[in-house]
From TrEMBL:
InterPro entries, sorted: 3-OH-isobutyrate_DH-rel_CS (IPR002204), 6-PGluconate_DH-like_C_sf (IPR008927), 6PGD_dom2 (IPR013328), 6PGDH_NADP-bd (IPR006115), HIBADH-like_NADP-bd (IPR029154), HIBADH-related (IPR015815), NAD(P)-bd_dom_sf (IPR036291)
Entry keyword annotation includes Oxidoreductase: yes
Family recorded in the similarity comment: Belongs to the HIBADH-related family.
Pfam families per record: NAD_binding_11, NAD_binding_2
A GO MF term: NADP binding
Sequence ranges assigned to domain 3-hydroxyisobutyrate dehydrogenase-like NAD-binding in this UniProt record: 163-281
Domain spans labelled 6-phosphogluconate dehydrogenase NADP-binding: 5-159
Signal sequence residues: none
Swiss-Prot/TrEMBL keywords: NAD, Oxidoreductase
Protein name: Oxidoreductase
Gene3D superfamilies: N-(1-d-carboxylethyl)-l-norvaline Dehydrogenase, domain 2, NAD(P)-binding Rossmann-like Domain
PROSITE patterns attached to this UniProt entry: 3_HYDROXYISOBUT_DH (PS00895)
Annotated source species: Maricaulis virginensis
């Protein structure tokens, strides 16, 4: 079993750290809000630390799941110098590829390993230990970290060098944006046509239109229920990072850019914390 540290106990990090403890690893946690890490330690029998530096000092693996580039950078600047030689830093935050490359170089200079390892599966995936992890970094570092990440993953893949994990996550978000908008429009059209959405989904979900979003969200979408995980605020953060990268690499993302603006419309409706399936609310409430 490994000595692990988890930095950041939000809706994703809290259960991910719990799975590490449940798998038998020795886990130390740190969170900006002390009450959250104390609650975690009481629930899972782990140890909370008073600072980032104290949390990472003896760890073989340091996992982080934070908010955005500035959050990751500020924590990593404290963690990397305090980590022991040969340890591995795994950043599960969805952040920029540019930051991943920056952290990879800082880790190399400090004699430690690094993986950028954003996840897909949302809060439910974290709670159920069924996340998909997209990694960028060295093959030997991935080989060391993968068995530990298995505590909360259903699949982990090494995509390429540092930054590749983040780029892969951007592809993931591009695809999701288009799928959710298409499903929203399809359900909206069915309702306006007087069709029973249940019968429609029963028919088309067995064919080429099938998707995870369709199988898991159509019922709540037609009920106007949007409290099921990944919030619009976070999706717009991810799309911002993606569109910035597209401007750098020359990729054309007209649908992703348009859906980002649709999400801005939902935010203006007060839906900042609604989940990403709430795109249908914009169609329904524009009537």
């Amino acid at each position: 079993m490994a000595r692990c540290t988890f930095l950041g106990l939000g809706v994703m990090g809290y259960p991910m750290a719990g799975h590490l403890a449940g798998a038998g690893h020795d886990v130390v946690v740190w969170n900006r809000t002390a009450a959250k890490m104390e609650q975690w330690a009481a629930e899972h029998g782990g140890v909370s630390a008073p600072s980032v530096e104290a949390a990472v000092a003896d760890a073989d693996f340091v996992f982080a799941c934070l908010g955005d580039d500035p959050d990751v950078r500020s924590v990593a600047e404290k963690a990397i110098p305090a980590m022991k030689p040969g340890a591995v830093l795994v950043d599960h935050t969805t952040a920029s590829a540019e930051l991943a490359r920056e952290l990879d170089q800082a880790a190399r200079d400090a004699g430690i390993g690094f993986l950028d390892a954003p996840v897909s599966g949302g809060q439910a995936g974290a709670e159920n230990g069924q996340l998909t992890i997209m990694c960028g970094g060295e093959a030997d570092t991935f080989a060391r970290a993968e068995p530990v990440m298995d505590a909360y993953a259903k699949a982990s893949s090494l995509i390429g060098p540092a930054g590749a994990g983040q780029l892969c996550k951007m592809v993931n978000q591009i695809c999701i944006a288009g799928i959710v908008q298409g499903l929203s429009e399809g359900l909206h059209f069915a309702k306006r046509s007087g069709l029973d959405p249940a019968l429609v989904i029963g028919a088309i979900s067995k064919g080429a239109a099938q998707s995870w979003q369709m199988e898991n969200r159509w019922q709540t979408m037609v009920k106007d229920e949007f409290d099921f995980g990944f919030a619009i605020d976070w999706m717009r953060k991810d799309l911002r990072i993606t569109l910035e990268e597209a401007r750098r690499n020359g990729a054309r993302l007209p649908v992703a850019a348009l859906v980002d603006q649709f999400y801005a419309d939902v935010q203006a409706m007060g839906g900042n914390r609604w989940d990403t399936s709430s795109l249908i609310a914009r169609l329904e409430r524009d009537l």
